[in-house]
């Protein structure tokens, strides 16, 4: 079993409901165990600003799925919720990103782990902090140390999961 962390995000079609449905699906999946979810936060979009604000959370779980099988599962959940992605860094109904897969570092055509931009994104590190403040990241910082280096002033607490 490997401990994995994923980021969840949405800014279309009732974003909180999109995250709630994805979380329910994760909790019911037979290959994911001990699913925990951070609080949900609102944030300004990365990239084009002519779109609604996002809601974001992080989930953690134990899994026996291989990294690409886990990626396939996450993408199937996105598709089941009729993922819409109009443009790069544009609005979307649901985005599930594999952030961490144990301590593994992967550079595959379809998957990079740890997630390439997670260390610079407060909307990832703040919810990750809710779950694992002392987790050591690839840059050697603990999550709580990384959080202190980020501007999270645009994050808005929405609800506790």
UniProtKB/TrEMBL annotation:
Question: Which residues belong to the signal peptide in this entry?
Answer: none
This entry's Enzyme Commission designation comes to 2.7.6.3
Q: Which InterPro entries match?
A: Hppk (IPR000550), Hppk_sf (IPR035907)
**PROSITE patterns according to UniProt:** HPPK
Family the UniProt entry places it in: Belongs to the HPPK family.
General function of this protein: Catalyzes the transfer of pyrophosphate from adenosine triphosphate (ATP) to 6-hydroxymethyl-7,8-dihydropterin, an enzymatic step in folate biosynthesis pathway.
> What name goes with this protein?
2-amino-4-hydroxy-6-hydroxymethyldihydropteridine pyrophosphokinase
Organism the protein comes from: Marinomonas algarum
What is the taxonomic lineage of the source species? Answer: Bacteria, Pseudomonadati, Pseudomonadota, Gammaproteobacteria, Oceanospirillales
């Amino acid at each position: 079993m490997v401990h994995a962390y994923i980021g969840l995000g949405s800014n279309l079609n009732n974003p909180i409901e999109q995250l709630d449905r994805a979380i329910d699906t994760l909790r019911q999946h037979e290959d994911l165990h001990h699913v925990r979810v951070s609080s949900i936060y609102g944030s300004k979009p990365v990239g084009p600003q002519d779109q609604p604000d996002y809601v974001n959370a992080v989930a953690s779980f134990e899994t026996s799925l291989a990294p690409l099988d886990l990626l396939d599962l996450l993408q199937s959940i996105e598709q089941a919720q009729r993922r819409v992605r109009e443009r790069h860094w544009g609005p979307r109904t649901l985005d599930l990103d594999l952030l961490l897969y144990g301590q593994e570092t992967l550079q595959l055509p379809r998957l990079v782990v740890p997630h390439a931009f997670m260390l610079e994104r407060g909307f990832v590190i703040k919810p990750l902090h809710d779950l694992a403040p002392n987790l050591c990241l690839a840059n050697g910082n603990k999550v709580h140390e990384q959080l202190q280096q980020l501007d999270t002033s645009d994050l808005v607490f929405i609800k506790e999961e």
